[in-house]
Design a protein that fits this description.
Layout (H helix, E strand, L loop, with lengths): L43 E6 L5 E8 L4 E6 L2 E5 L5 E5 L6 E5 L3 H4 L13 E4 L3 E2 L2 E2 L2 E4 L19 E2 L15 H8 L7 H23 L14 H5 L5 H8 L7
Parallel strand pairs: 2-11
Antiparallel strand pairs: 1-2, 1-6, 2-3, 3-4, 5-6, 7-10, 8-9
Helix pairs in contact: 2-3
């Protein structure tokens, strides 16, 4: 991560001679273990986070829906307003944290009157688009209905027309629901987490039963003493009893 980043965006660093060493768009800056699933590539942006340092994630500016999409662990999160706080988890779903959305006009300037209307129109910041108030170019040429008053305006890879191509590919580890039992609020548990919690509760009860059973008193078996008076009588003589068993009668 960007350990020298106290906030985003970055304008320089007292720890490194070149501020570009902290650029999220440079894959060479993403070495080491990424505990918070950071991604360093040409479409990444830096976000303030609750971890104390800036974090880099792949981002897309969505024109039609007018929001900034942030990809964390394969899941697309939405920045729909300035300084919105989003919750996320790091690698393995263990380290929970939050990131703060940037000012949308700074992160996606071309989403607010692209290319400053290309010098062929004015930016109306109070225009109504899809029922919401958002900036919109009003072109001098009424026949020009392009977003930036230029039908030849080419968007770079960070900008896309709509979110139809954004697919969540969130990877889930087998033990993520188990980890959530110990780290997350039960209100946010999924079905798998409740199953893990039930299994742990049953195992806990069995352990208590085993411990308690070790303290239960053992049943004592009393030995019946043979009465000499009983066997001294001719009727109860062991030899006579054996004789009865074989059809014989031994009498004394």
């Amino acid at each position: 991560g960007l350990k020298q980043a106290d906030f985003c965006p970055l304008y320089g660093s007292v720890y490194r001679a070149n501020a570009h060493d902290l650029d999220c768009r440079d894959p060479a800056n993403g070495g080491g273990v990424q505990l918070y699933a950071e991604v360093f590539d040409k479409d990444s942006m830096c976000y303030e986070s609750s971890t104390g340092v800036g974090r880099c994630y792949t981002s897309r500016c969505i024109y039609d829906e007018f929001y900034l999409a942030v990809n964390v662990r394969g899941e697309w999160l939405k920045c729909e307003e300035d300084f919105q706080v989003l919750e996320f988890k790091g690698t393995g779903g263990v380290l929970a944290a939050t990131l703060t959305c940037p000012r949308l006009s700074s992160a996606c300037p071309d989403m607010f009157c692209p290319a400053n209307c290309a010098g062929r129109g004015v930016c109306n910041f109070e225009a109504i688009v899809n029922g919401t108030t958002r900036p919109k170019c009003e072109c001098f040429d009424e026949n020009d209905d392009s977003p930036g008053c230029s039908s030849t305006l080419k968007l770079d890879g960070r900008y896309i027309d709509d979110s139809s191509d954004l697919v969540n590919k969130k990877s889930k580890n087998f033990f993520d629901p188990l980890i959530a039992v110990f780290t997350d609020n039960p209100d946010t548990w999924e079905t798998e987490s409740w199953i893990w919690a039930s299994a742990i509760f049953v195992i806990f009860l069995l352990l208590i039963l085993c411990v308690c059973s070790s303290f239960w008193p053992q049943k004592k078996h009393q030995r019946v003493n043979r009465s000499d008076d009983y066997y001294d009588s001719p009727q109860n003589s062991p030899r006579r009893k054996r004789g009865y068993e074989h059809g014989r009668d031994y009498r004394y």
